[in-house]
Design a protein that fits this description.
Layout: H1 6-24, H2 37-64, H3 96-117, H4 121-135, H5 145-161, H6 165-185, H7 206-230, H8 234-251, H9 256-272, H10 276-290, H11 299-304, H12 306-341, H13 350-373, H14 380-390, H15 401-421, H16 428-448, H17 452-472, H18 475-507, H19 515-537, H20 552-571, H21 577-600, H22 609-636
Helix pairs in contact: 1-2, 2-3, 3-4, 3-5, 4-5, 5-6, 5-7, 6-7, 7-8, 8-9, 9-10, 9-12, 10-12, 10-14, 12-15, 12-16, 15-16, 16-17, 17-18, 18-19, 19-20, 20-21, 21-22
Length: about 625
């Protein structure tokens, strides 16, 4: 800039450095009653820089107005969201007019970010838009491509914050196109925006320029991942999220715990899609990278320092969250394997098991190829560590008890870890959710167990962990959770009852069961009915009246519970004819309720088709049984 003397320019550079320091450093210490004090000071400095640049521009315009009149004509630029067909046309990279426009644009950019940071969004948008207009006078070049990228990133964030996802998508996708086009056409380390206001001796190295530019593009990828998630393009969002995480590792620009938690969260998407290899890789990487955050400070050390105390809590919580993601991985893997292997009555299909075992051999041969084609996290330093964690758990469906147990044990280990942080005292809902997952792990493992006695003991473990909490929880504050627990306990007792009867029938028919077995069977049957009835009673009004109309969220569970109570009443074993008749009469009453409710509310029939069909059959059959018992009692008398 020939018309600007060195002292004037150095003064501009000093103001910019001070503005950056105020924004990035001093603002962290601003008082609560004046949270933007440093940023307001930075804004004043930026305005002074803008005025100086306009003054320099006016002076230079007198010198070069004739020489650059052709260059100053705006070139045709792409609208955001369109192809960059004019790449490489217009100003040359070192055109004085182009560089002046870029510098003014950079100040507008920093003013825009400043206003957004101080919650003045409209003013922020105006400055960012001014930056875009100034850039219309430039072609994309190594001197300004970083600014092209940053301003679109910021506008993308701004519009996403307003829930205008289409606008945000347009800016961010254009930023992505600019980066890709530049790297293809040029690819040299571009000038960073801060260098517009830096003296020559303080210019960045090529390596630092590259790192900053790549980091800006990583932000583009991250914001696009959020936008795609919000507009329902989940697969695309996952791809961009994984690319973002990988780039953060490559650039060594990440917070270990934040990165680990994002990777663990991404694993949950892959799990829901049945992509267990990718899910396991994300979780293994999360486990390894979270270790870079260091050890959790001891409680004594944390008490000595408020910062250490806060860090201790954050580390413990985030590691517990990663543990919970591991629990979901193990649980979903077992449950999906169960769906593949069960027959039409919910038991293990041995033919299907053999077929999948043969298929497994082919899958294992393809697994290595699949891993090589997948986008893997980490560097040479972390690959081995991640692989070691991966080897602890299957990513293929377990096909027998031994494999299922190995997955279960990994999940149970993470249950223990998660419960260390999410304790009942202080985290009631989280603690119970973890216990419910633990119970579900036992239930999934029980499917693979051939020994009926051992399977029954697994269900007993579920009862032991859930029953005390269900009975102790306050219904006023935790009604929905109590209902979930009641229903699960009712089903668990019912499963145990069926297993006990199956075991007994292998030895003798029902009529000749010994008193101990009958007592045990009736206890399990009554316990199941008790919890189903507790669930139904929880639906009553404060006056004790059962609702005439069941809301959608409880319609199916309520009708199923009534059906199951009816079934359980009819299965109670008694030698007394009067008790048998009483049980059958109660059972008939429950079956009739299901039938009558569905007749009164026809839409409800779709929610309980199987139960309704069986209820209708029992409404026809039970009166005949009751009459036979009456006749038998009369004959005995």
């Amino acid at each position: 800039m020939a018309a600007v003397n060195t002292d004037e320019w150095r003064a501009v550079c000093d103001k910019f450095t001070n503005a950056q320091h105020l924004t990035d450093v001093e603002s962290r210490n601003d008082p609560e009653n004046d949270p933007f004090r440093s940023k307001y000071k930075a804004r004043e400095l930026l305005r002074e820089i803008y005025c100086s640049l306009k003054s320099f521009e006016a002076g230079e315009g007198e010198e070069d107005s004739g020489a650059e009149s052709a260059d100053q004509r705006p070139t045709e630029q792409p609208v955001d969201g369109q192809k960059l067909d004019g790449f490489g046309q217009g100003f040359s990279g070192d055109s004085p007019a182009g560089l002046r426009a870029a510098k003014l644009g950079a100040v507008e950019y920093y003013l825009g970010v400043n206003h957004v940071d101080t919650e003045e969004l409209s003013a922020g948008q105006e400055h960012l838009t001014n930056c875009m207009k100034l850039l219309e006078r430039c072609r994309v070049s190594s001197e300004n491509v970083s600014l092209f990228l940053h301003v679109r990133n910021q506008l993308g964030i701004l519009w996403a914050g307003r829930d205008e996802m289409e606008q945000a998508q347009g800016y961010l996708e254009t930023a992505e196109s600019i980066y890709q086009h530049y790297m293809k056409e040029d690819g040299s380390p571009p000038t960073d925006m801060t260098e517009y206001f830096t003296t020559e001796e303080n210019l960045l190295t090529h390596q630092e320029r590259t790192k900053r530019f790549e980091l800006a593009y990583t932000h583009t990828m991250y914001y696009l991942a959020q936008v795609y998630k919000n507009i329902g393009q989940t697969e695309r969002a996952a791809t961009y999220c994984q690319s973002t995480l990988q780039r953060q590792l490559q650039l060594n620009q990440f917070s270990p715990m934040e990165w680990a938690l994002n990777a663990a969260t991404l694993s949950q998407y892959y799990i829901t899609k049945g992509k267990y290899m990718e899910g396991r890789h994300c979780l293994s990487a999360a486990t390894v990278i979270s270790g870079l955050a260091g050890e959790v400070p001891s409680e004594a050390a944390a008490q000595e320092s408020e910062t250490e105390c806060e860090r201790r809590e954050q580390l413990r919580q985030k590691r517990a969250e990663i543990a919970r993601c591991w629990i979901k991985y193990c649980l979903n893997l077992l449950q999906d394997a169960k769906k593949l292997l069960e027959d039409n009555i919910g038991e293990l299909d041995t033919d299907r098991q053999e077929e999948l075992t043969r298929q497994r051999r082919r899958d294992e041969e393809e697994e290595e190829k699949g891993r090589k084609s997948a986008l893997l996290f980490g560097s040479e330093d972390t690959f081995d560590s991640i692989a070691t964690v991966e080897e602890r758990v299957l990513c293929l469906f377990p096909l027998d008890f031994t494999e299922a147990r190995s997955v279960f044990l990994v999940g149970q280990n993470y249950v223990t870890q998660a419960k260390e942080y999410y304790q009942m005292d202080g985290y009631v809902t989280d603690h119970i959710e973890i216990l419910q997952d633990h119970s579900a792990l036992f239930r999934a493992l029980a499917f693979f167990e051939e020994d009926m006695e051992r399977r029954c003991k697994m269900h007993k473990r579920r009862v032991d962990m859930l029953e005390p909490i269900c009975n102790d929880l306050n219904s006023q504050y935790y009604l929905l959770i109590r209902r979930q627990l009641m229903f699960e306990l009712a089903e668990t007792y019912s499963d145990m009852m069926d297993l006990k009867l199956t075991l007994a029938n292998r030895q003798a028919d029902t009529q000749s069961l010994d008193n101990h077995t009958i007592k045990k069977f009736n206890h399990l049957c009554s316990a199941s009915a008790k919890y189903f009835q507790m669930f139904l009673d929880s639906l009553r009004s404060p006056e004790g009246k059962f609702p005439e109309h069941l809301e959608d969220d409880v319609l199916r569970p309520a009708l199923v519970a009534r059906f199951r109570v009816g079934r359980l009443q009819s299965r109670l074993i008694s030698s007394s004819l009067s008790v048998q008749m009483e049980n059958l009469s109660k059972s008939l009453e429950d079956y009739k309720y299901v039938v009558d409710y569905c007749e009164t509310h026809p839409a409800a029939a779709h929610a309980v088709e199987t139960e309704l069909e069986l209820s209708k059959e029992m409404v026809d059959l039970l009166p005949l049984k009751i009459n036979r018992l009456k006749a038998k009692m009369a004959a005995n008398n």
